[in-house]
């Protein structure tokens, strides 16, 4: 940094600068050294779910989720009604949104099913497990002009579109069933499901906190739906849940 002590040396090397110009340069450098950007706010996407009374599922494997690149970042992204994206540099998830969704799904499903996620626990094989692959085509924060408001207020929605595949894996299941033996072994079934929904954000003063809370509620809905499909896969029964389609 240039200071008053060495300003004379600076002028000796650059005689075209006047002492007034040098003083101005010192002032600008000093101000730039003292300036600082606001400290970012960080939020997590931890869902809230109620555990099942009982579940026979003991091991799950929640894979990293699919998510569009436009959303898979730490700063929050708001989409307006014209499709324009606004990146909120000081309002951030504690990790990228894709990592937040995977960790939230894992935590919620472990709590809901009373199971262990072997993907992050380091558990070895040998037990029946349910592999869960999830793809979010949308987890958008939408901001729209409220035409009913005389003040021109903005309303926010959380719009979610997600698909997932549940695959049952039993390492003890024989590859070939002997001829003439009644088949009593549960097959390694695979189930594909999808759902889409929108939740409105009701702001009570802190818009960002309300957006985060509704985002958590939305992820909790996804956890409930995936847990129901895991139970259906385990019981070899259809999934009966509103807004969820499985095949």
Structure description:
- It is built from five helices and nine strands, in the order ααββββαβαβββαβ.
- It is an alpha/beta fold and 247 residues long.
- It folds into two domains: 36 residues, no CATH class; 191 residues, 3-Layer(aba) Sandwich (Rossmann fold).
- Strands 1, 2, 3, 4, 5, 6, 7, 8 and 9 form a nine-stranded mixed beta sheet that branches.
- α3 packs across α5.
- The radius of gyration is 27 Å and the shape is elongated.
- 24% of the residues are buried.
List the defining traits of the structure above.
single chain; Rossmann fold; nine-stranded mixed beta sheet; 5 helices
Fold blueprint:
Layout lengths: L6 H7 L5 H16 L6 E3 L15 E4 L12 E6 L4 E9 L3 H17 L2 E2 H4 L7 E17 L8 E16 L20 E12 L5 H29 L8 E3 L1
Helix pairs in contact: 3-5
């Amino acid at each position: 940094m240039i200071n008053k002590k060495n300003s004379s040396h600076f002028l000796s090397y650059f005689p075209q600068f006047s002492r007034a110009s040098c003083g101005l340069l010192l002032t600008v450098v000093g101000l730039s050294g003292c300036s600082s950007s606001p400290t970012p706010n960080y939020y997590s996407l931890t869902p809230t779910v109620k555990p099942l009374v009982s579940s026979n599922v003991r091991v799950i494997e929640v894979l990293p989720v699919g998510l569009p690149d436009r959303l898979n970042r730490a700063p929050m992204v708001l989409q307006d009604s014209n499709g324009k994206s606004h990146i909120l540099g000081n309002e951030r998830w504690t990790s990228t949104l894709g990592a937040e969704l995977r960790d939230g799904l894992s935590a919620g499903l472990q709590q809901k099913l009373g199971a262990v996620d072997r993907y992050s626990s380091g558990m070895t094989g040998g037990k029946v497990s349910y592999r869960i692959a999830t793809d979010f085509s949308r987890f958008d924060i939408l901001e729209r002009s409220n035409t009913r408001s005389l003040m021109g207020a903005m309303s926010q929605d959380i719009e979610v579109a997600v698909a997932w595949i549940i695959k049952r894996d039993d390492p003890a299941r024989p590859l070939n069933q002997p001829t003439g033996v009644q088949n009593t072994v549960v097959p390694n079934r695979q189930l594909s499901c999808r759902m889409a929904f929108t939740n409105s954000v009701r702001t009570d003063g802190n818009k960002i906190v309300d957006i985060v809370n509704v985002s958590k509620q939305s992820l909790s809905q996804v956890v409930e739906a995936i847990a129901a499909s895991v139970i259906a896969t385990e019981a070899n029964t259809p999934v009966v849940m509103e807004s969820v389609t499985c095949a």
